[in-house]
Specification:
By secondary structure, the protein is of the alpha/beta class. It is about 35% helix and about 15% strand. The chain contains 15 helices and eleven strands. The two termini are about 35 Å apart.
Length: about 400
């Protein structure tokens, strides 16, 4: 167990007269390629109680039931721990959620999105807790899925930045990535993300800097927000007793200018939510200027500017984008101790392309079998026997 230490009361503590009992909530999952959809699920789950415990499955369990994970279990543990709504994580949580697990960690109920999670033999992993009435559901975040992100990386297409027309090869990919001859699962696929001010408000801390806070500014693409970013932000957070970290996110066109190819993988709205979900970040500047100017430093009253060990590309006029904070003596280069980059993630995906495609095809096949069974059950007279057809094989 890894606690995040917010000082939230534990339900196992002795409660005084009139003290409200702490409601402990359980979530579990693979949390592979953590994105703002995962964060939004955990945000909703935390809002249903007072203390959120998140179980994360091992690589072995995921490989058995789904296929190879993109990230290692240690990377996934640290990523989930960095999400600001998580109070505690349980490493190596069982793939099937049992009442025994909820009782072991003193959790009142578990929360999952309104999609379905199946074992290797096609069973609902939440069957037991559902029957016991200790299951709650939250809304799945539209517009993001691991399937979609993997597809973007494999094709490296610019189409994901446009709500207009997807090129034919990308459309063909998203149609076939979880291909099963019968139909398409509503849970495995691609939908368009529509940013709203309400979503930003839900993710934002709403906390203003206070006297005595050290205001630290960091800037970058923060594309496919990953463990390398988390390690960097954690090190920055440890630089001060009362850190207030502002992350400047560059617009898509700016990122493409210095990253090249078809980066960024995620658009600026998606990247904003991913960074806001991190417990080390207090505020985000959407569309920050590439050069850290005197105006920016003065406006936010910045005490310190930090950058990682990655290469700093000169500004369009050839100047150093960190010239001003260096002139003021407030620039620090931080070694995060983690060399993972967005490029390396893309390389992992491309290297294991066939395995990831097969994983999604099998996943969708099982989902479709369950959908078919649900439809048959709803269509049959009450009390009638029903034989459920097995999933189609990818």
């Amino acid at each position: 167990m890894i606690r995040n230490g917010h000082g939230t009361a534990d339900s196992s503590e002795k409660l005084g007269p009139g003290t409200k009992r702490t409601v402990r909530v359980w979530c579990d999952g693979c949390y592979d390629m953590v994105h703002y959809g995962h964060s939004n699920q955990l945000r909703q789950a935390r809002a249903m109680g007072d203390y959120l415990v998140v179980g994360v499955h091992t690589d072995e369990e995921i490989a058995k039931h789904k296929g190879p994970p993109v990230f290692t279990q240690e990377e996934r543990y640290k990523m989930v721990q960095a999400i600001k709504w998580v109070d505690e994580i349980v490493a190596g949580a069982p793939y099937v959620t049992a009442l025994e697990t909820l009782d072991k960690y003193n959790c009142d109920f578990c929360v999952h999105g309104n999609d379905i999670t199946l074992t290797v033999d096609g069973r609902d992993t939440y069957e037991e807790v559902k029957k016991a009435g200790r299951y709650r559901e939250c809304k799945r975040t539209q517009g993001v899925s691991t399937t979609d992100l993997v597809g973007r990386m494999l094709l490296m297409t610019k189409a994901h930045h446009s709500s207009r027309e997807l090129p034919s090869e990308y459309q063909e990919y998203t149609d076939s990535f979880g291909k099963c001859p019968r139909s398409h699962s509503p849970w495995t696929g691609v939908s368009q993300f529509l940013q709203t001010s309400q979503k930003i408000i839900q993710f934002a801390s709403g906390k203003e800097p206070e006297p005595g806070d050290t205001i630290i500014y960091v800037a970058g693409a923060f594309d496919l927000f990953h463990i390398g970013h988390v390690c960097f932000l954690e090190k920055v957070y440890q630089l001060a007793e009362r850190p207030y970290i502002i992350a400047g996110l560059h617009f898509d066109q700016e990122v493409n200018h210095y990253k090249g190819k078809n980066y960024p993988i995620m658009n600026v709205h998606e990247r904003t939510l991913s960074v806001l979900a991190c417990r080390y970040v207090a505020e985000v500047v959407i569309g920050a200027p590439y050069a850290v100017t005197a105006n920016l430093l003065d406006h936010f009253k910045v005490d310190l500017v930090c950058h990682g060990k990655t290469e700093v590309v000169p500004d369009k006029d050839g100047s150093d984008p960190y010239k001003e904070p260096k002139r003021r003596g407030i620039f620090r280069q931080i070694n995060s101790g983690n060399d993972l980059t967005t490029d390396l993630i893309v390389q992992r995906i491309i290297k294991n392309r066939l395995e990831y495609e097969a994983r999604n095809q099998k996943k969708e096949a099982r989902e479709l079998a369950v959908l078919e069974a649900i439809k048959k059950r709803e269509a049959m007279p009450e009390g009638a026997a029903m034989q459920v057809e097995g999933p189609c094989e990818a």
